[in-house]
Structures are given as C-alpha cells and as structure tokens.
Amino acid sequence: MTRTNRDPGDDVPTPQEIYERIDTTVGQVLIGNDDAIEQLTIAVLTGSHLLLEGVPGVAKTTMANLFARASGLDYRRIQMTPDVLPADIVGTHVYREHTGEFELRRGPIFTNLIVADEINRATPKTQSALLEAMAENHVTIEGTTLELPDPFMVIATQNPIEMDGVFELPEAQRDRFQFKLTVDLPDREVEAELLDRFDSEPDLGPSAIDQVVDPAVLINARQRIYAVFVAEPVKQYILDLVSRTRIHPDVAHGASPRASLTFLHGAKARAAINGRNYVIPDDVKKLARSVLVHRLVLNTEADISDVRPADVVADVIESVDVPDVQPRTDSASVS
C-alpha cells in the first residue's frame, strides 16, 4: 500500500491513515475480515449504509461493534423481531401525567451507527421505518422532522439460512444499502488462530480496543474523497457494468442509477484509503460484487434454474472489458 505524503505538521489523518488505524485496531480482536473493514470504512466515509449477510456465529455484530468503537462512533443495536414496531426504532411522544404534556422520546436510531440485527425478521412496516433515515438522514415522528447525527450509518445483518418467520427486504430498501457483504466461515488456519487468541485472552472483545479516530475526522475526510479524480474511461466502465445488468438474460430488473453513483463514490473512497488521488479500474472491479449483488431482481426462469445473483454479477464482471487507464503523474497520494 502506498504511503501517504503530507506535511508533518498536519495532524489531521488522511483517509488512508484512518483506514489503517481502524483496520489495525479491529484486527486486535478479529482476523480474516480485511475486505469487510475496508468496505465499512468506505461506507462511513461516504455517508452510506451496509448489509452484512452470514450464518450465525461469524461475528457480524461484533465486527460492527468493534468498528464503531475504533472509529469513535456512538453505537446502538436493535434486535429485530416480528413484534418490533416502527416507534421502537424512531421514537414517539409519551404523555407525562405529572406535567399534562406529551414529551418526545427519541428512539435508538438517534445515534451514529445503528445495527439492525437480523433485519429480515422484522415486518415490512418496521423495516420501512429505517428507509427515511437511510435516504434522508432524518426521521419524522408524528409530523415532526428530526435530523439524525452526522456521521449516521445503518449496518443491517441477516441470516441466509433462516427461512421461517422472515420477511425479504423490499427492492427499494435493498437499493439504499451501498454494499452487501457476505461474511463467510473462516478457513481452518484463521479459525485455529482465533482459538489460540481467545484461549490466551478469554475476555477479548470490543471493550479491549481503543478509539483511534474521532468522528469529526471522518467528516473532514469526505472533502478529500470528493476531490479524488475519476477519468472518463473509468466512468464509462462503471456505466458498462451497470447497463450490462439491465440486459442480462437472467435479470428482470437491473441496477439503478443509484448503483452507478455508489460505484463512483465508493471507488473514490477506495482510492483515497489506498493513498491515491485518482481512481483506477480495479477500484471499481473490486467493489462490483458488493455493489450489485443485492440490487438485481432475477426473472422467473433464473429462479427456477437456481441461478444466484452472485452468478449473474460474476458473469457481468467477466463480460465487460476493463479499460486501460494510465496512472496520473502529477500526484500519487491524497494529502
């Protein structure tokens, strides 16, 4: 990874330094999750949201908690169940008998990072309570619009093997998640290292790590990301990937223009956390699966044939030519 060049007197960390601090700190507890930490960092730096999918026990919620603690974000978790109501998330007005007045009780969504654990166990009405927050960074409670903190980020988790008592996320809500990441089971070597680590430190967890970034630093880093250069061939590559999903024979509804913007912003952030002030095609390609996989609606024939969205995305990536873009020579780092 290219080291960042900047004025030694400048004590404001660069996007690259932010990522390296968070990755190193989270790695004190978890291992083998580098891609997830990278994309969590990209999401928070671009003001976006993330969907984590994996079987129980792969540390989805722990990862979110560790990320929040390392980055100094206020963190809350909601365990989604069918009986959770929208008011349990956004809040409501409560009558106070001793004053004879209604008092606003804010829900847990008024935080920097909220984890909606097992989001697909909540009813569609409750799931939609998150939609306004994810889209507009505010919520409306009984006609009153209230701004959410900045940064604000939703991390939702879901279990792919749970079939009973779950509600599939509607397409509009899936589209609001910048990335969908699959947290896989670790390989034997990684799991063996986890055994050794927790054998020597049984209480190892989020409380064992320190805050290494201030939320104000995350907000400041956005301006550096906005300034990252994207060459025209890279933009055309983004458009080629997105448009190919719309004409794929297994797809009923392809990715929307929001996916194109997600590619743009995500690729800029990935370039910045790798110490570059320009996007390369590999930034786009590396993000393609997590940007597209949850946005595709397959047609009936594909469903019958057990075609998976991940298969379609892999085919799209393979079928689109990667442009030959030469690195910029004026500067190689974000300062």
UniProtKB/TrEMBL annotation:
Pfam families, A to Z: AAA_3, AAA_lid_2
CDD domains, A to Z: AAA
A GO molecular-function descriptor: ATP hydrolysis activity
Ranges of residues in domain AAA+ ATPase: 46-187
Domain of life (superkingdom): Archaea
Coiled coil location: none
UniProt xrefs under Gene3D superfamilies: Magnesium chelatase subunit I, C-Terminal domain, P-loop containing nucleotide triphosphate hydrolases
Protein name: MoxR family ATPase
Lineage, top ranks: Archaea, Methanobacteriati, Methanobacteriota, Stenosarchaea group, Halobacteria
